[in-house]
Each structure stands twice: as C-alpha cells, then as structure tokens.
Amino acid sequence: MTTTSEKRERRKLARERLRRLQQRAKERELAAKPATVEASAPLSDVDIDAAPISPRAAIRESDASVAEKQKQRQEAIGALERDVAELGRLAEPTSSTADDISRIRREVDELKRDFYANLVSWQKVQLARHPQRPYTDDFIRLLFEDFSEIHGDRGFADDAALITGMARFHGKPCLVVGTQKGRGTKQRVARNFGQAKPEGYRKALRAMQLAAKFSRPIFVFVDTPGAYPGVDGEERGQAEAIAYNIRELARLATPIIVTVTGEGGSGGALAIAVGDRVYMLENSIYSVISPEGCASIMWRDSTKAELAAEALKITAPDLLRLKLIDEVVPEPAGGAHNDYEATAKMLDPVLVRALEELTPLSPQQLIDGRYEKFRAMGQFFA
C-alpha cells in the first residue's frame, strides 16, 4: 500500500517536473517558431535557432553548423517527449496536472511538426534511409488483400530484393511490385539490401506482362539505393535488363501507379518506375545518383554529400516543382517510420483516386499519355 506521505512526495515531484517541463517547452517553442528576417540583413547575423533554415542558408552557412543545430533541436524534442511521458506516469490520473500535461503534449507535437517542416535536403536523405521506414511488405499487409507472391524470372533465379504478386485492392484484382530491403542483418543480406539483380528486374517484367495480359492495374513501391553493382550482376546483363524494362514498361497496356516510399535510386528505381502516375511520400528521395556518389564525382570528396543533396534537388517538394512527379503524399508527424497504419491511410485515397482516373482510359490512351509524360520531363525552355 502507498502511504499518504509517499503520495504527497510523488505529487510534489510531479509538480516540480511539470514546472521544469513547462519552461523547457516554452523555450523550445520560441526557438522553433519562424522569425521575420529583413532582406538587407547579412546572413551571418541571422539567428539559426530563431529563423527557419532555408536551403540557401544551409549552403552558405557552415554545413556542419546547420546539421548540428538541427540535430540539437531533434535531441531536445526527443528529450522533451521522454520527460512528458515520464511525467504522465508520475502524476495521479485525477491530478490537476492532467490538463497541463495534455497541453504540453500538444506543444511537443507542434514542435515536431515545425521541426520536420524545416528539414534540409540532407536530413530528408537520412530520413528516407531510416531503417524502420515501412517497406513493400508493410504496404501489402496494410493496403491489399489476398496477396499471392510470384517467384522467379523463368531464366536464372528468384531475386528476393524484389517482391511481385497478385492481390486485391479494394476488392479489385491487381499486381503489386516493390523493392524490399529487409529488417535485421539476416533479412537485409537475404534481400541484398533492396538492390535488385538482373533476374529481379526480369521477374518484375514477367509479372507485369502477365498483369497486362489480364488487364490488371499495377501498383509499384520503390525503396532502393540502386541496382546491384556487383560483378555477377554485370555478367548477367544488369544494364540490359534495366534498359529493357524501361522500354517495355513505357508501352505496357495497363495502368501503372508508382509510389516512391523511401529511396528512389538511379536506374535501379527507374527500371520499375515508368508509370502513369508517380507519387512520393513526403520524406522520400528520388535521384539519378546518391549524394555521396555525386560528391565523390564533383568534388572528389564524399564528405560533401550534404552540399550535393541540396544541389541535386532530390526531395519530394523539389521534384514536384520540377514536374517530375505527380503528387507528394504526406506522412505522419515525425515520419512514416513512426506510424505505418497512418502512412497507409494517407496513401490509400491517393491510390484509389489514381486508379479511378486511369481505369476508364483505353490501352492506347494509357501508352500515349505515359509517353507524353516522360517526354515532357526536362523541357524547361520549350
């Protein structure tokens, strides 16, 4: 039994912690709020904690300094979340502090939203690579029914880095294709870290051609750093497999709906991402090369990856602005890795809308529209 003195001591402790948390929340809230900066003010005079970090400021200021500031903010918000959770356990359920705790929780949520709204490109790269982001098998479980996997390319082997299979989406038969990184060391090795080999791309194309034969729409989920670069992949025709897939997908007579859920790396992503609709989750990236690879080529220094990430314009908002994708799908506060079900609920209506728009189109209309879509990319001066 808890004595009266122990209860009194616990309430006293809870009140003291609440007072400290309120002060910390107020300080963090002020630090995260955007401040108006005069155009004439020199960049060096801008308080990074008080003003939102813009991409231009990230390049001009010390890259290390910007990253460190954002890291400190993230750590502070994380510590605040832990304190609020601990305070919730300490305080009595009927205590007068309950309202204050709820208010602080709302303030912490607002801080998180502000923080993730002002991420620089390199931080989005890291978020896209987060090991706990939802993968293809998670979206299959949350969005589709009656999934039946298709294995093998009928020529060499089955590539575990690519998942293909028939399923039902809201009761309608379809095909699902997606890269799979795997969780944990054993799974990642078995899945080859999401890097497909030629047999993987040939398996995907075989399944897609089967879907087109029966007029089934294709849903593609992309999360790969790129195609497998090993010698054995090259021996079996990696480049030819990617090029062949791109050509065949461009003239496949069925709706193809693509979603980049994490990394969309180079030709390894494009080999399955030639679609009528191309979407990206809010914190995903899509690029012809990784920031590290770009930095190694441009500056002979892979440590300049942060600068390369900004220059490449690989984030979802950048690509939407350049008209390389069709829509950015929002994620839950803090990123998709925090809530798989919420992420799937946000993506579901987007996929439903795309399917409703594409289903009435004839095969020739789909092919012509896909051709025009990709031919128009990069035509900024026409």
Number of domains: 2
> In the CATH hierarchy, what is the class of the largest domain?
Alpha Beta
Measured by DSSP, the beta-strand proportion falls in 5-15%
Give a count of the beta strands, DSSP E runs of length 2 or more: 8
Q: Helix amount, in percent?
A: 40-55%
Classify the secondary structure makeup into a structural class.
alpha/beta
Q: What is the global morphology?
A: elongated
And the CATH topology of the largest domain? 2-enoyl-CoA Hydratase, Chain A, domain 1
Order of helices and strands: HHHHHHEEEHHEHHEHEEHHHEHH
Low-confidence residue ranges: 34-64
Give the CATH superfamily of the largest domain.
2-enoyl-CoA Hydratase, Chain A, domain 1
Mean pLDDT: 81
Largest sheet: 8 strands, mixed
Distance linking N and C termini: 80 Å
The helix tally amounts to: 16
From the alpha-carbon coordinates, what is the Rg to the nearest angstrom? Answer: 24 Å
CATH architecture field of the largest domain: Alpha-Beta Complex
Please explain how this structure is put together.
By secondary structure, this protein is α/β, with parallel strands linked by helices. The protein folds into 2 domains: 7-118; 136-375, Alpha-Beta Complex (2-enoyl-CoA Hydratase, Chain A, domain 1), CATH 3.90.226. The protein is 52% helix and 13% strand. It is built from 16 helices and 8 strands. The protein has helices at 4-32, 55-60, 63-90, 98-117, 121-128, 136-143, 184-190, 198-213, 231-235, 238-250, 266-270, 291-298, 305-312, 316-321, 340-358, 363-375, and strands at residues 145-149, 162-169, 172-179, 218-224, 256-265, 277-281, 285-287, 327-329. Strands 1, 2, 3, 4, 5, 6, 7 and 8 form an 8-stranded mixed β-sheet that branches. Strand 5 (256-265), helix 11 and strand 6 (277-281) form a beta-alpha-beta unit. Helix 8 runs parallel beside helix 10. Mean pLDDT is 81; it is low at 34-64.
